[in-house]
Amino acid sequence: MSGEEDKTKGKFEEGKGKAKQAWGSAADDKGAEASGKADEAKGKGRQAYGDAKDWVDEKTDDDEDKN
Q1: Residue 4: how many other CB atoms lie within 10 Å
Q2: Rounded CA separation 4/34 (Å)
């Protein structure tokens, strides 16, 4: 999976988490709110992972060009 795919999936997961939090808040469902916060954090983590993969790919491509 490429870094872009991870970032896209992360954005989706983050959005899903925010929606779940909003629903949990409106329904006074603390479990749904907590689950939404976890999903949001997971999405942000996946986006960071995608950024890191892109960074590594960029650096390794630069190193290969020098040789």
Answers
A1: 11
A2: 27
Q: What pTM, to 2 d.p., does this model score?
A: 0.83
Q: Please tell me the number of Cα atoms within 13 Å of 30 on its side-chain side.
A: 0
- Residue 5, SS3? helix
Per-residue pLDDT tens digits for 6-15: 999 999 999 9
Contacts of 58 (CB under 8 A, 6+ apart): none
Structure tokens at 58: 């960029």
CA–CA dist 35, 14 (Å, integer): 11
Residue 57, pLDDT score:
93
Q: How confident is the model at residue 49 (pLDDT cuts 50, 70, 90)?
A: very high
